[in-house]
What we know:
Layout: E1 2-3, H1 8-18, E2 22-24, E3 38-39, E4 42-43, H2 54-63, E5 69-72, H3 83-100, E6 105-107, E7 111-112, H4 127-142, E8 151-155, H5 170-184, E9 195-200, E10 206-212, E11 217-224, H6 226-243, E12 249-254, H7 286-296, E13 301-303, E14 309-311
Parallel strand pairs: 1-2, 2-3, 4-5, 5-6, 7-8, 8-9, 9-12
Antiparallel strand pairs: 10-11, 13-14
Helix pairs in contact: 2-3, 3-4, 5-6, 6-7
Amino acid sequence: MVSHKSGGAENEYFLDRLGVRWYLNFSPDTSDIPTGIEKLPHIGAIEPGNLLSTSTIASLVGSAPAGSYWYVGGEPNRKSITGAQFAEVFDYYHTHIKSADPTAKITGPSILNWDFTCIGCSGYTSGETWLRDFIDTYRASYGQPPPVDVWAIDTYPIDWNNTPNSATHASIVISQLQGMRQYLNTIPEYVDTPIWITELAVHVGYDGWIWDPFPTQIVPVGIYHWDKMSDYLIAVLDWLEDNAASNLIERWFLFTTWRDIVNMGSDEYMGIVFFEGPDVGASLNCLGEIYRSWALGLPRVKCDANGNTVPADS
C-alpha cells in the first residue's frame, strides 16, 4: 500500500509496478479508482467551523463503493485542534457518514507517532497525550468511547540531528506501534480494533542539511545514502512481516511513490521514494524494487551504496 498523489490510470501504473492494490492520496474523491484497486478516501477538513457540509458528506459517501473505509483527520496532534475539540468533530462525521452508508467503516484520526515527537525540532503534542484526551472527552460527552473501526497512526522517526537516518531509526517506529497497541488493549472496546499505518517513511537520506534563507528552505548536503534507506525500509518491513498479526496491524501505506528529494517542498522530506520520476513510465529505483519484492513474495533485494539493486544476502 502506498500514498500517491495522482488518480486514474496513473495510479494503476504505479500500483501495478509496486505490486500493491491499495492507495491513499489524501482526497475524499472516489470517482477515478481503477478496477481492482482500493482507495482509502480521506477527509482532512477537521477544524471546528470549517467542516464539510452534510450535503457534501452525503454526496461523497454516496458516490463511493458501499462499505468503504473513511479516513477522518490527519495528524491532528501537530495542528491547532485538541483531542477534546476533536470529539465533537468525530461525532459529526461519524453520524453523517453512517447516515449516508450504514455499512461504511471509519478510522480514527492518524496521530503522528505515539510517545516520540522528534529530535532537533520544536516538537508537538504527543500522539499519546492527544489520543487519550480525545477518547476520554468523547466518552464523557457521549457515554461510550469513540465508535472507531480502525485506529490510524503515522510513524516517522523524525531526527534532524543524526543523519543520514538509518536502520537504527526503525526501532523508533516499532516502539510507536507497540505503544499504541498496548494502550488500545487496555480499553475493552478496542482489544480487537486493528491499526492502520497511514504514513510510513523516514525523512533524511543525506549526510546532512543546511537552512537556506533564500528562498527559505532546507537544502540537502552530501550524498543520498541508498544503502541506509534500504536498511531502514527492510528493518521495518521485516518487523511488520513477523509482528503485524500479533499487534493487529492490518494495513500500512508507505508515504509516497515519488517526491523531489533535492528541491524539497514545505514538508522538507528527503527520504524514501520508489520511482525515478513522477510520470507514467518511470522506472522503479532500488527502494521500489525492495518493496515490490516484499509485496509479491519475490526473492528479497536491497540497495547498495550506489543505488543498484542487489540480492539481499550479498
